Amino acid sequence: MRTPVIAGNWKLFKTIGEATGMVNDLKPLVAAAKGTEIVVAPPFTALSRVADALAGSNVHLAAQDCYWEEEGAFTGEVAPKMLKDVGCSHVIIGHSERRQYFGETDATVNKKVKAAINAGLTAIVCVGETLAEREANKTFAVIESQVRGGLEGLPPEALSKVIIAYEPVWAIGTGKTASDAQAQEVHAFIRNLMARCFDQGSADGMRILYGGSVKPDNVKGLMTQPDIDGALVGGASLKAESFAAIANFAE
């Protein structure tokens, strides 16, 4: 039985005060969601204070990115062990915005995933195709390349510290959402790919999230699909009420 995951990626939003206020509002709204793993990913500047605010709650803390070295002359970067030290249990890696704007590649994703796991973090590894790639019928080829590249060299036992998030780039922040069937098709492909790359047990245990304009009014349909194990939420995660409604999808 795969534990569902509802993760909120706050991106470049919220000061420290706004972030702590939001999680203080969120905690009582999701306290009863015992069968779901709930994660929030504030900006780096707010991680420490949000960690304090979340202490004792059922909400986990994630960072939005990391570097693959433990320390060194890498101005502006943050190491996985620093994230662990501040209270993070998860880290998002390879989000399409990192790939589009900051030169992230499958090779750098792979380095970051290995470093995150070595530091004791769970890596939420993002994959997804652009609209041009989908229209050119390249969706599965793109997803396979990203999954294989991002997870290359990992032993099967490390996969318990990996969550895959399928985010069609054309659905992120656009208001467009893949239909339940479209999302399920790609999620099933990813699970079958995991069986081919690793083993059936790893595939059966892998949690695969859908991301791309997830909202309270569409999450239930997505979550009825057999291979969709949760959501990576963008805009709707910025308000406690809407994110809680998504996290409480099972009610």
Automatic annotation (TrEMBL):
<feature type="binding site">
    <location>
        <begin position="234"/>
        <end position="235"/>
    </location>
    <ligand>
        <name>substrate</name>
    </ligand>
</feature>
<comment type="function">
    <text>Involved in the gluconeogenesis. Catalyzes stereospecifically the conversion of dihydroxyacetone phosphate (DHAP) to D-glyceraldehyde-3-phosphate (G3P).</text>
</comment>
<dbReference type="GO" id="GO:0006096">
    <property type="term" value="P:glycolytic process"/>
</dbReference>
<comment type="pathway">
    <text>Carbohydrate biosynthesis; gluconeogenesis.</text>
</comment>
<dbReference type="InterPro" id="IPR000652">
    <property type="entry name" value="Triosephosphate_isomerase"/>
</dbReference>
<dbReference type="Pfam" id="PF00121">
    <property type="entry name" value="TIM"/>
</dbReference>
<dbReference type="GO" id="GO:0004807">
    <property type="term" value="F:triose-phosphate isomerase activity"/>
</dbReference>
<feature type="binding site">
    <location>
        <position position="213"/>
    </location>
    <ligand>
        <name>substrate</name>
    </ligand>
</feature>
<dbReference type="InterPro" id="IPR035990">
    <property type="entry name" value="TIM_sf"/>
</dbReference>
<dbReference type="GO" id="GO:0006094">
    <property type="term" value="P:gluconeogenesis"/>
</dbReference>
<feature type="active site" description="Proton acceptor">
    <location>
        <position position="167"/>
    </location>
</feature>
<dbReference type="GO" id="GO:0046166">
    <property type="term" value="P:glyceraldehyde-3-phosphate biosynthetic process"/>
</dbReference>
<feature type="active site" description="Electrophile">
    <location>
        <position position="95"/>
    </location>
</feature>
<feature type="binding site">
    <location>
        <begin position="9"/>
        <end position="11"/>
    </location>
    <ligand>
        <name>substrate</name>
    </ligand>
</feature>
<protein>
    <recommendedName>
        <fullName>Triosephosphate isomerase</fullName>
        <ecNumber>5.3.1.1</ecNumber>
    </recommendedName>
</protein>
<dbReference type="InterPro" id="IPR022896">
    <property type="entry name" value="TrioseP_Isoase_bac/euk"/>
</dbReference>
<comment type="pathway">
    <text>Carbohydrate degradation; glycolysis; D-glyceraldehyde 3-phosphate from glycerone phosphate: step 1/1.</text>
</comment>
<keyword id="KW-0963">Cytoplasm</keyword>
<dbReference type="GO" id="GO:0005829">
    <property type="term" value="C:cytosol"/>
</dbReference>
<comment type="similarity">
    <text>Belongs to the triosephosphate isomerase family.</text>
</comment>
<dbReference type="InterPro" id="IPR013785">
    <property type="entry name" value="Aldolase_TIM"/>
</dbReference>
<keyword id="KW-0312">Gluconeogenesis</keyword>
<dbReference type="InterPro" id="IPR020861">
    <property type="entry name" value="Triosephosphate_isomerase_AS"/>
</dbReference>
<keyword id="KW-0413">Isomerase</keyword>
<comment type="subunit">
    <text>Homodimer.</text>
</comment>
<feature type="binding site">
    <location>
        <position position="173"/>
    </location>
    <ligand>
        <name>substrate</name>
    </ligand>
</feature>
<keyword id="KW-0324">Glycolysis</keyword>
<dbReference type="GO" id="GO:0019563">
    <property type="term" value="P:glycerol catabolic process"/>
</dbReference>
